[in-house]
């Protein structure tokens, strides 16, 4: 009821005020503010906020936040002051109102100016000049011409850049390709000359005179339709004459080497015999060190083999020297057990023979003594 009465009295008083005074009171909480702000109060408000006229809204808000943190009673800072904070808040409201008023006045001025300008229909702005530019058609045409010039310049620069990059890339690729091609041609020519020389030399010696298939076509070595017969025949001829691929020779060499090392370490252990005296243990340690070094070299050979082998499933793993030494020890123990078992069997057979033919052997001995 009290609010309604206050509003009724305000309306009555406002009706009694002459219209030429242009006073518009408003109520905001318990404060009475006026729509009219004197010039001096606006300048003072800018000074309180430590700003200049014409600043942006972001500057106003940032300044207000910093001053509010500085003077707010609840901030807990040493510069907290309620009166200063109220001044800052009032100045902030005045500055915001001033900025809003200037913005509206600028918009009104622009609208008034636009009313006197001859505008083309909105849809025509986007039917020409690719929608570039603003203003009158002549201005938009100039802006569009400049836009086309800039775009053409950028396209030319981009084209030149791409052309140079492709040229350098193609040049490097051609150089590498030429080097590989030249090496390939040299190797092919060298092989062809070597083969031709060997054939001529063999023909001169008469090695081809006694061939069974002389003058006949080569027989197919494989009936598989997925294999090129020419390639298969050439590979078969090379293999039959000892020309095997490098990785096959390396694989064969690795297998022969590991077998030789295994036999060698077992033989060395058998030669030392048992039991292991300090001298024999020292000799065995020296043999194991040499075996470990040989296994290391063999593993390096396996690395080279894995680099050239064409099939992944054909690759080999490293040999472990410790495992090979344990294996050799077990092999030696098994040999000793077999030897002991064979010796025991031999003794048993001898004893049985003595039991069976003891009197005959005694008679033979007596006869020999008598004859002498």
Automatic annotation (TrEMBL):
<dbReference type="InterPro" id="IPR001623">
    <property type="entry name" value="DnaJ_domain"/>
</dbReference>
<protein>
    <submittedName>
        <fullName>DnaJ heat shock protein family (Hsp40) member C28</fullName>
    </submittedName>
</protein>
<dbReference type="Pfam" id="PF09350">
    <property type="entry name" value="DJC28_CD"/>
</dbReference>
<dbReference type="InterPro" id="IPR036869">
    <property type="entry name" value="J_dom_sf"/>
</dbReference>
<feature type="domain" description="J">
    <location>
        <begin position="44"/>
        <end position="117"/>
    </location>
</feature>
<dbReference type="Pfam" id="PF00226">
    <property type="entry name" value="DnaJ"/>
</dbReference>
<dbReference type="InterPro" id="IPR052573">
    <property type="entry name" value="DnaJ_C_subfamily_28"/>
</dbReference>
<dbReference type="InterPro" id="IPR018961">
    <property type="entry name" value="DnaJ_homolog_subfam-C_membr-28"/>
</dbReference>
